[in-house]
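Usage

Read records sequentially. Each one opens with the input sequence:
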Amino acid sequence: MMVSLPPDYRPLEHEEFMNPIQVEYFRQKLLRWRMDLIREADGTLASLSEGGIHEADITDRASVETDRALELRTRDRARKLVSKIDQALGRIEDGSYGYCEETGEPIGLRRLEARPIATMSIEAQERHERKERVHRDD
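and closes with the structure output:
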């Protein structure tokens, strides 16, 4: 079911949570984010494939290698983000988007605006992180 999004639409707390317009809003937000990441990654790939390091000066060479390592790390982070965006788009398709995977409660519009790939409510996320910290200290 395709829903047209009113121009300048922003989800509001008083609306029914994850109504078709909200779902379409987040779907488009995720798709735009995904497209931006892929465009940036293509630019990174183009600059990395422009050949080897030609700087004769060892300092310049080290600087170029450091820049490349940083670009590769950034690209890897973007690749992981694209994967999480794809998972979020899958949740939109199956109707589970916007609901905490732990409690089933709504994640909340402010959290989804800030982190559209969120899978847990803030409370569940904090519990999860506390548990991780406890187990890490063992």
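Summary fields computed downstream for this record:
- The domain at 20-137 is CATH 1.20.120.910 (Four Helix Bundle (Hemerythrin (Met), subunit A)).
- The mean pLDDT is 87.
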